[in-house]
Please model this.
Amino acid sequence: MIRTAKPSVVIAGAGGFIGTALASELRADYPIIGLGRGDRPDGFPPDAEWRRCDLFSLFECERAVAGAGSAFYLVHSMLPSARLTQGTFQDFDLICADNFARAAARAGVGHIIYLGGMIPDQADLSRHILSRREVELTLGAHGVPLTTLRAGIVIGLRGSSYGMFRTVLERAPVIPCPRWSASLIQPVALSDAIRLLRHCLENPETENRSHDIGSNDIMTYRELLERSARLLGRRRLFFNLPFQLIGFSKAFLALISGYPRQLVSPLVESLKHSLFSSDLSLQIKAGLMPFTLEQAVRASLQEERSSGRFRSIHALETRRKRLIPRSGRKTVRSVQRIQLPPGRSARWLALRFTIWLPRFFRSLLRADVDGDGGLVIRSRPLRISLLELRFDSQRSAASVRQLFYITGGLLARRTDCATRRPRLEFREVLGGSAVLVAIHDYRPTLPWPVYNLTQALAHLWVMRSFARAVSAGAARFPK
Model:
């Protein structure tokens, strides 16, 4: 296929159902670069470029976005990325978005387009919605113009939220409707979301703004289920319950859908919010008449008829969501957020950590700092080297990020992968209000059951103790 002179377009999260559909939409007019942690997925256009990229690695992000003119960010981090993960999906999302934004700025990418979630103007927002807002702020924090599309629920055959509801309609003849089912939702068809993403790519006036998108239908979640059931030809009995029952709903939907609890739990927590907008000005300017819910569901059914039975498609999606990427099956990822005192930096926090750690472990371990800023942790009785961390001054040139490579010691396996070396980093986020202290791609030498009960718990204890020390003693710490 002969390509035009248009610049390349990167799609982060290209293996998802929206990313695959977007690549198919753009492939005839733009050189496409799809990014994903694994191999090229079956539905991704064969004539588009595919680059393996772990968004937790700033180095891999920099390589992956090289040469791109624009970028789409269609990523969430609610699914496990390692054999053992410590931390919240919000912090995993944050570090991936920060890597991508930093890499895009360094590569000269001209525009980032992000598909996030609607953010209601109210207090007590769910973790998922707060995370979407943090990602939005982070993607726009490094100088690259950002356009954000905010959607409620995208109606598509392989979508997580709609797929979760669809399996309930397929498998449960009687469907309880807790109080959250009276919350309002404004769905959007997959095809409409794709056309609006393309519109943002081709219209610079959308930059540096957030735009709500959706159909003209605003309905309760119960109405969404009832109308979808009629279109699917499923006769179901719905009955109201006078309680929110968020915990019950998590268990019920995880059991029925088969999705991992890490994915279901944040989605269910957001159901208590009404997610709708009266301002669909972007769609009006784009000349787009949005699909109704019925049209969106029928389009999903048409795709299903051409792809196979829903049961088989859903089983494949469930397996994919439960699968830990091959590169992460023997590794640990731990990300802990520490609030940063005013006027301090990630460099200050990393230096504070190397001073604090020997004092904290003075009765059991010894922690020595070498002349280059590296750290060696030894046992006191026999002076056995347990962990050796080499400070990388070249990748830590700015005070906002400090990087240590885990290079040896009795408790660390060596690895030959140049781009996914075990590492500890201190990274400023959210305008310097917090630091993420993260361990990536670490491979323990202890057997996994022993590691989970000893070293893993010890690491959390250390980091939480350090966070308390920072909070309590920041005024006394030297700058």
